[in-house]
Design goal:
Layout (H helix, E strand, L loop, with lengths): L11 E9 L4 H11 L1 H4 L3 E10 L4 E8 L2 H12 L2 H11 L3 E11 L14 E9 L4 H18 L3 E10 L4 E8 L2 H12 L2 H10 L3 E11 L7
Antiparallel strand pairs: 1-3, 1-4, 2-3, 2-8, 4-6, 5-7, 5-8, 6-7
Helix pairs in contact: 1-4, 5-7
Pfam families: NIPSNAP
InterPro entries: Dimeric_a/b-barrel, NIPSNAP, NipSnap_domain
Organism: Cinclus mexicanus (American dipper)
Length: 223
């Protein structure tokens, strides 16, 4: 089925999710902060986080590419980068239980944002929508997102719609000052008639939803 409208350039984002062995998370994060400059020398890292609530022992990272040829060139260069392969990959892979990646585009009405300051927390919300793509549920979904933005308690960073991976999946990345600030904002939003109406309309197209609270790593451009 057609995925519907998307940004009219070739830029896409690769979303990588790794499950780390529970006893090895601290070691893995230390290695990322120490050696990830070898990886970011090849292409743009949007952000790197580890899960705090909603999922255990997971890391999330997002990469930006101009097009698929750009990604192929980067992957080729990484395979031949001795520092990256020798200092990070060879030591990090035994710490990883599972890897998953997706290719996604920003939805046409969203530009990648930044938090107003460093030191907050991020919320990664995954919506599995009914088949049909944005042509079916796009307007209602956008209205629900805007209703939350208009409450002012949270900052939208990006809305990503999958092209490769599980289709009809939308990932929404939010920023909040703290988990308590987010909780208070959500409580207020649940009592806001505009939010209630928009969510009620959008949820008709929803199959499932998962929320994960994320903490940015030292090496993450989004902090």
């Amino acid at each position: 089925l057609a995925t519907g409208p998307r940004q009219n350039n070739g830029i896409f984002y690769e979303i990588r999710t790794y499950d780390i062995k529970p006893a090895k998370m601290k070691e893995f994060l230390e290695m990322v902060n120490k050696y990830f400059h070898f990886r970011t020398a090849h292409s743009e890292l949007v952000g790197f986080w580890y899960s705090e609530l909603g999922a255990m022992n997971k890391v999330f990272h997002i990469w930006k590419y101009d097009n698929f040829a750009h990604r192929a060139a980067v992957r080729h260069a990484l395979a031949n980068d001795r520092d990256w392969q020798g200092k990070f990959i060879s030591a990090a892979l035994p710490l990883v239980e599972k890897q998953h990646n997706e290719v996604a585009y920003l939805v046409p009405w969203c530009q990648l944002g930044k938090p107003p300051k460093e030191g907050g927390v991020y919320e990664w919300v995954t919506f599995q929508m009914k088949p049909g793509g944005p042509a079916l549920w796009g307007e209602a979904f956008r209205a629900a997102i805007n209703a939350h933005i208009n409450t002012g308690y949270t900052r939208l960073i990006g809305v990503f719609h999958t092209e490769y991976g599980l289709l009809n999946t939308v990932h929404v990345l939010w920023w909040n000052e703290s988990p308590d600030h987010r909780a208070a904002g959500r409580h207020s939003a649940h009592e806001d008639a505009r939010v209630v109406a928009a969510v009620r309309d959008s949820v008709r197209f929803l199959e499932s939803q998962q929320n994960v609270l994320l903490i940015p790593l030292q090496c993450s451009p989004l902090k």
